[in-house]
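Changelog note: in this version the structure field was regenerated for every chain. One regenerated record is shown below for reference.
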Amino acid sequence: MKCSKQILHALQAQANSARAAGQQRFFKTGPGEYAHGDKFLGLTLPQTRALAKKWAAQADEEDLKSLFKSPWHEARAAAVLLLVEQFEKSKTAVEKKKVFDFYVAHLPQCNNWDLIDISVYKIIGAYLYGQKDRRLFYRLAHSHNLWEQRAAIVGTMYLVKRGDFAVTLDLARQFCSHPHELIHKATGWLLREVGKKDEAILCAFLDENYFRMPRTMLRYGVERLPAEKKRLYMAK
């Protein structure tokens, strides 16, 4: 039996229909919503993560492709978590590049915000942090795929945590005119992370751009500022 089949069996064995019904609503799977048609088994993230840790050493690219093609959300979550495990355990630059390339090729199949958020900065962010060429962030930002656009900004989390803000701020300027709330939330979140590292840099960005920022992006961005500064930016 292929590893992917064993993972799917293990996922299905832990299915919880009541939790799945709530996840269907929370992750917007109804007609016309951004995840229309996605299906959930009802597992928690820790349950899926535990399976990824168990099978990371055995899963090959065919297993991962099979999981990415699954209609079950948790199978795709297992795929990205497996890749995170494999990337972090890779001992050579060649091995890391192989995982990175595979992940980038399958980004469109990471078709909900949680799949992006639990993996992209740990693979794309971690890989590009050590590279001079960071054009991939900008290529993803200009994609017509919503999930690749979210990957662009969330992927910079790895850089932000290490005090490297330039790409994040560039993309935040671009995304001020983005129409989708999922991008507003993600961009505001990353700006908040910038502020946690350097409040002055965040405030300089806000002073320059607050009047262009969607309300949700601004609210997320100022969340950790002192109460008076937060009030002033929101009042503006």
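Spot check on this record: The chain has two domains: 1-118, 134-236. The chain has 16 helices and no strands.
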